[in-house]
# Entry
Amino acid sequence: MNQLSWGPPPMLSQQGMTLERHILERQRAIPGATGDFTGLFQQLALAAKVINSRVRQAGLAGILGLTGERNVQGEEVQKLDDFAQNVIVRSVEAGGHLCLMGSEEAADPIRIPEQYPTGKYVLLFDPLDGSSNIDVDISIGTIFAVHRRQTLGRHGSLADCLQPGTSQVAAGYVIYGSSTVLVYSTGDGVHGFTLDPAVGEFFLSHENIRIPARGRSYSVNEGNTHLWSPGVRRWVEHLKTPRQQDDGGPPGVYSARYVGSLVADFHRTLLKGGVFAYPADKKSPDGKLRLLYEAAPMGFICEAAGGSASTGRGRICEIEPTRLHQRTPVYLGSREDVAVAESFVHEG
Ligand code: AFP
# Structure
């Protein structure tokens, strides 16, 4: 009879590859690297830990009977997305690595306060994506993109934010899920780090993530079917129609998986394959998702993992942005699955 073992699982922390060490080792391999990038990442990782700790308390706030206005210390309880926004800005503004930031939560670019030095990078971020899911205990996340500044002058300008995804020097996200995982890429591989809450540190848990060339699931809000173009409708019908599998196996259809939280839907797609889409539709002719701090960073990560990131008609990362909060249609995931989607979208 098999004995069940209730011993402790192997600890990530015993393997010792922290996020900080991972980035530091890569920095050492780049001649002339100043450590600016490493410094910025340390601050982002700290912000992620602080946001994580607040997200984990969000349900408790309800259980403990807080009004939502004041906490037990009598302090004002901020909405979690405002909180996440403030934590990120406060964590990175003083480091001297950035000249400007752009956030989903701010209409205009965010300047570095006069008392702090500025640096050569620009940070674009969505502090808490999927925040409407917090009340129902569904995974949410933080998304970020880092560009090198293009303009001169102390503060940088909007032009520094409006760079195509191909210019990103790094992109990443943090998923606050059953565990908290930070995934990042600098373009040469995608790596995931799981937060060990006992140690308070991110440890390498998903090295060199590769997205399968084809998956078995599709992820799209089918409640929008009535708003889609005939091509998008036919694409989803195609996925739901049983067909012979390439390997001669029994006829299969794609499974539907849709959380409604981009980070959760993307994370699953990255690890398991398949396709996530938010198409253009009659209500949102440019799509719903934001280019600079949602679609482009996820697209950059997807491509670095061997997948594709398309608007349905071209590469997301090649779009030349004209507005900070620009939207785009999105098809992200396994190379072959995205190619099939594109072929239907092209039909119109
Ligand atoms: P919220 O932040 O308002 O929850 O929006 C989440 C989101 O931007 C993205 O995370 C989801 O993929 C997408 O919207 C879901 O949109 P629908 O609710 O229209 O399916």
In short: The pocket of AFP is lined by residues 129-133, 221, 260-262, 265, 288 (CB under 6 Å). The chain is about 30% helix and 20% strand. The chain has a mean pLDDT of 90. The two ends are 60 Å apart (CA to CA).
